[in-house]
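Build the 3D complex.
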Amino acid sequence: MPVKRGNAARVRTKALASDYTVSLHYDRRLYREDIAGSIAHARMLGRQGIISGDESKAIVGGLEKIRAEIESGKFLWRPELEDIHMNIEARLFDLIGDTAGKLHTARSRNDQVATDTRLYARARAEDTMRSLRGLQGTLLDCAEKNPSTLLPGYTHLQRAQPVLLAHHLLAYFEMFDRDARRFESARAAADVMPLGSGALAGLPYSIDRESVARELGFSAIASNSMDAVSDRDFLLDWLSAAAIAMMHVSRLAEEIVLWSSEEFGFVQLSDEYTTGSSIMPQKRNPDFAELARGKTGRVYGNLMAALTTLKGLPMTYNRDLQEDKERLFDTVDTLLPTLEITAGMLSGARFNEGRMRDAARRSYVLATDLADYLVRKGMPFREAHGVVADLTRTAMNRGKYLHDLSLADYRRASGLFAKDVLDINLEASIAARDTIGGTSPRRVADALKAARTRLKNARPREGGGLGAGDRSSTPASPPSGGEGG
Amino acid sequence: MPVKRGNAARVRTKALASDYTVSLHYDRRLYREDIAGSIAHARMLGRQGIISGDESKAIVGGLEKIRAEIESGKFLWRPELEDIHMNIEARLFDLIGDTAGKLHTARSRNDQVATDTRLYARARAEDTMRSLRGLQGTLLDCAEKNPSTLLPGYTHLQRAQPVLLAHHLLAYFEMFDRDARRFESARAAADVMPLGSGALAGLPYSIDRESVARELGFSAIASNSMDAVSDRDFLLDWLSAAAIAMMHVSRLAEEIVLWSSEEFGFVQLSDEYTTGSSIMPQKRNPDFAELARGKTGRVYGNLMAALTTLKGLPMTYNRDLQEDKERLFDTVDTLLPTLEITAGMLSGARFNEGRMRDAARRSYVLATDLADYLVRKGMPFREAHGVVADLTRTAMNRGKYLHDLSLADYRRASGLFAKDVLDINLEASIAARDTIGGTSPRRVADALKAARTRLKNARPREGGGLGAGDRSSTPASPPSGGEGG
Amino acid sequence: MPVKRGNAARVRTKALASDYTVSLHYDRRLYREDIAGSIAHARMLGRQGIISGDESKAIVGGLEKIRAEIESGKFLWRPELEDIHMNIEARLFDLIGDTAGKLHTARSRNDQVATDTRLYARARAEDTMRSLRGLQGTLLDCAEKNPSTLLPGYTHLQRAQPVLLAHHLLAYFEMFDRDARRFESARAAADVMPLGSGALAGLPYSIDRESVARELGFSAIASNSMDAVSDRDFLLDWLSAAAIAMMHVSRLAEEIVLWSSEEFGFVQLSDEYTTGSSIMPQKRNPDFAELARGKTGRVYGNLMAALTTLKGLPMTYNRDLQEDKERLFDTVDTLLPTLEITAGMLSGARFNEGRMRDAARRSYVLATDLADYLVRKGMPFREAHGVVADLTRTAMNRGKYLHDLSLADYRRASGLFAKDVLDINLEASIAARDTIGGTSPRRVADALKAARTRLKNARPREGGGLGAGDRSSTPASPPSGGEGG
Amino acid sequence: MPVKRGNAARVRTKALASDYTVSLHYDRRLYREDIAGSIAHARMLGRQGIISGDESKAIVGGLEKIRAEIESGKFLWRPELEDIHMNIEARLFDLIGDTAGKLHTARSRNDQVATDTRLYARARAEDTMRSLRGLQGTLLDCAEKNPSTLLPGYTHLQRAQPVLLAHHLLAYFEMFDRDARRFESARAAADVMPLGSGALAGLPYSIDRESVARELGFSAIASNSMDAVSDRDFLLDWLSAAAIAMMHVSRLAEEIVLWSSEEFGFVQLSDEYTTGSSIMPQKRNPDFAELARGKTGRVYGNLMAALTTLKGLPMTYNRDLQEDKERLFDTVDTLLPTLEITAGMLSGARFNEGRMRDAARRSYVLATDLADYLVRKGMPFREAHGVVADLTRTAMNRGKYLHDLSLADYRRASGLFAKDVLDINLEASIAARDTIGGTSPRRVADALKAARTRLKNARPREGGGLGAGDRSSTPASPPSGGEGG
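Done.
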């Protein structure tokens, strides 16, 4: 029996040259979006009298049956039909006969596929925001569990000034916070409905786009049909948000790798997140952190790929655009597990307070504090620096650290040093940095509290009824009421 | 005389190994941002009593003098001082003596340079928004000047359905509209003040960050000092917004190149925007469009460069970050002229209405309309498609277009065809697509009007007092009152 | 029963945190390489007396059985064992008991996996060379079938000078020739054996690397063990060769899309390589060309991904490197079908000689020839250009082409024009460009002949006994005897 | 006075729309290549009688004078003439009058600019090879100066097995060796002469391309004129070779940063290659290594930029190609100093033998050796691993390293341990890895010697008479006699 097709279907009069154009192996993951979009469309056609109420019902019923078949694993996928759309279409003909063809009234493959992809991108942006919020929560947990742990803050990978571990972890909280906002924007970018644009020029039917948008939970309707079928900006927004998020992950992963080394010894990852070798049971290779860092390349590559594909394409739809989905899917499949792994890895990590403090103590990270001390006593900046530089040099040459010096040593360097110079220690240094955003315990406690509040207030967009582990959306959620910035 | 330095300055005890680390040749363009930041900082130090009022005044006065020197071309740049900051600093010592050193109280090079770059990125985002708005205006002008011009809409570079030129141009309006919003986000991302974060840990002085932010027009203050000195997300937001905008430009440029070809002949560019050869005066090579398209690569490359540089950097400041500025500057220097050129090129372009209409007429772009006609008469979709396919094939074989067929021809294909089938023409086809976002004259007129309004309402952020052609910001603008994005 | 492992195996003492580290779904395609490498290793261990002859035979027998199981589809893949190596290893224990463990004597996972990947990359480079040679052959076929077809050569997509279609096609022959040489280099880069490097430092056994290399057909042996286990240059060579080849494909694809447009009408693709729509049977969308062009992005992205992943990795093996294989596999899976599709598409393409000639005739592409005519008659260059520019302008204003002008017209422009100016036509123009590399029929015929010879002499490296459609190598081919430049 | 132009010159009838198309600021660095190409061309025109001998001499004389003017700084650059070619051309008219116009006989801007760029790329490839060879030499120097220094070899940044520092450094020698060969290929790719291809179709003059190629030192002549004017593969070869070389640099730089940290303490950079702060004189920030690592992004970006620009360009020359040169120049300006800096940095580095040995000692890097010991005594692999794992765990729990265990401890674990187990130490472990490519002193000494020989034999291509610090080529070198692999 020949495959049945509606008006938007592509006709292949001869046997396929090859499976070069087949996309079923990846686009079948869009089945829920595709069916949801078709149901909303069919209902609207019925409401508008473009097809009869019975036809509309038959189509909706058929599509629901197909969805059930797919979800129960009973659907027979036919690669020779090339893509998810043709598979569902052909099955609909089997189920309800020629009425199936009416589903394609006032719709084209071009606006259909753009709608599916946007529904998917929107749902996955929501998932990503949830994962990011989860990771942020883990960072706060770690910070709260280690309130007074201190370590050297580094510049150039050189010990520079002591900081609280909680402060260090909050830096990552900020990064992932920006990421979550970036995905909020990516979600908003996807949240515009192309359906109703036809092949490129609009449609000669009295369709009702608003009601379809409402049913699919879209906040906005594409306002130019030519743009609507060829616009993939929402994908680029997604991919560049993902690239930046992976960059943040790579920085954290780099630190985990460094801190797991014998040289640093700042952190011990749990067994689940390390691998050893059969012969060196003590080995704790931070493979998960390395893989997360390595996968950054892949996500950057996906962004570059999509940008390249879109470069220089004339209006409107060109088949090059078929390449869009795999880049998104691969990015989703990389980013989401990476965020989860990162949270899990942090969650089970044991921070070695002793090693951290030791690293701070056995260093000259208090030099700045000594200079600030002299400045507060009235010494000009440059002169203070010179004095401290001399002191440090002297200490080094004697194989000592600054805290090993006696008051006499200090006073030999400058008469402005008084007994209270001996009070300058790691804790004091940290406490002194009591500015907004600074590392003092008071500021960090405030920052932690504020972070908790921000996290609580971060509107958790519910994709609605997602099955566990299921990466498909249920686009039947109510309209979100605007982009929300 | 040895160079004088403040506390954050980098000491070079020996002669420079080379000019590898020198950045003066590019970072001198930050002079206004650097001086504005220093002035705001010095004023605050005075207000807080960290330095005396007289010292504060001396510093501010010196800095204002330096700014004047630079702007009048009298400043002596010294490459051996490596960067803009050391150049200004050294000159300040010359002008006001040792008080100059006090400017570096409660500030580090790390938070200073991040602040400068953000001020610059913010101002350039504003410039870009203005250029984008200008280009959008030009598109509307072109559309309004050609209200009834029609041409074939293309898919796969094949003529598909007739559309209004105005509709086609409005597709680009939408693209650049998204770009402008993206730059609004990039602006907001830059609009967070790192100053007051110190080297990485905050500062042991009772500084007042809010007042500095107010003076510099920042809407927000970085809330974690470690993040603040190492965060370059605002740059990535800028660069990815630029990459996407260039992608849009490349699509438009591609169409201009195509339309300028003898084969299409849809557009004639003005002499200013073409080049010829001495021997072929009729030649109108669209060099500007080609260059704009070609420069897309450069902007993509800058994004990839920045992403790569940031990958895997541990906390906090690492010298790798010095690479950030040139990627931004090169992108600014590419994107802004490209947007202006594109607007200019469109502005002087003459659209060849005859060639466009001819291309639409000499085609089968009305086939869809014929099928829709039959469907409206009650024929099932698939059957209607078959009838029209046969009609088209027949016409082609007879060397005719569909509009050459007689009523008898039509009725031979299907008895449902009546006399009104002869009314199906380009205009009717266009008029029929009267859905939201469709190409009907009514919808396009509405869309044009709406676009004008949107453009008018697009808040033109004024960078404040920028000299003509000057790419530096005046960061003294009042606080913008929120991201608004 | 617990999984058995040899010395290089990674121990996982707890349940997997997730399937984040699992690679079986993609690395199982390396089974032939992995087994071939293990067999060669086991034989060598036996020969050297590191294990007994019986043990060696048992291992080799077991591995051959496993290969047969895999190839007959009977092998039970176990994802919980993570990768191809562990799957084969565990099965070997099942089959031959504890002797299986001896296979891992004097070998580590690090040198094993690098060896597998190199064998695979080498074989796929050979496949790619074959595909490129095939595509070059198709180009020559097309050129030979259309020996006298002429068309305008374009610069800036403007008609510039007439050329032979065969000459145009030979330009692509040259591009793919460079690609083939680039893959020859990529092959040579892969053709260096890491096996015998151990985990990173070499091995404390008297192994015989030369004999293993001979058996696996490697021309060279890695000369530094630390480099050997962390070097992925051969992969970058592969990926950048692929990126450049796809760039060439994208140019050809762009031209096919242009030439398939109604505006150009230079080529008609066969039905297999176009798609239509159910309603517009005349439509011949060049989807395959568009997809080929679009997939360029993907291959560029893979290169960028691999470069990013490798950036900044310290010595020696880091788990980030696991990301290498998928980038290669995806590139192989994209490039090879794209080359085949491109050849097929060209093979069935019908070039429209009439449209091409018409495009050349209805233009001013002979202007240069007129100027050259005057120069040869002694007129200085600049003056000749001026004369022809005037002539062209005059013709244009009268709605004529240059070949429409009379001798009188010519002589009015310059007395140097004689009757033979009327002999300047497309054929004459083409014939006149009789320089090396020029478009004259003689030169093109020579170039075609030379190209055929070059193609014939291009050493077809036989991967040896590859099954049809099988992308795995048989590395048992004899040593290739040098890189061959 | 109006600017004089030859036949290939682009005519601009109106004032420039902007300086968008101006390239003089960067392409003036091609002056030597441009003049050398013009001189060779003019001489050939004279020899072939296309212009007279006197004309030829006048042109050559004029061009030599211009070159002298440029090199003595007396040349007046005129940006309004847009590019280097027009500047030289206009000056030639000034100097020798209308004969200047004859230089453009039988040449077009398209083949001229491609020739210039190839000459430049070829010369810079030679410079790069020299720099790479220099860096390799420095690595050998370092290795030879530290023949017995040992350190832990790392996998996953975990100490794995002891190696010689010389062995570690030789790994980089291998990387840069591959880079040098890659640049040899890039050189060969550039070493093909496009001159004589005309605008795109060849030339209607009896030119002699071979003699021009000989004079310019080209080994080959482009064999298809259309390919010749639009081919930029040689540039991509250059840029991808550069990207891979920078990747290697980034790995070395990462290790230098790590090793410079207090935690590792393996290396102390010289003052020239570090920066400190005014207050922490002991600080040795590895800024040069960080910058080198950071600049990797820039070079990757340039490759991506060029690939993107070339994607999808139809035949033949398109103005997009103008973007090629800056990507090359920026890459040259980044890569060459980076290689020099890296060599300088290594050269002055002091390796801390004590810290390295300590890191190896205070670890369990000998576990593999213990297992190999047992295997040699006949214990099956897996069992040996189990025994050592238990030993290691026991030692760890007792706060000891393996070398702290007594013979009794060992024998408790297995009766196969005999007194000679106590001989297993770092030196013995290293000595035992005596396979080709292994880290044993004997193998490393051999490898060093072989490396010296390879380096000596690496044919130093002399660009010929390059002034110090001058990045321009003298293309008058004799033909190189083949690619040489």
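The CA atoms of residues 16 and 80 of chain B lie 9 Å apart.
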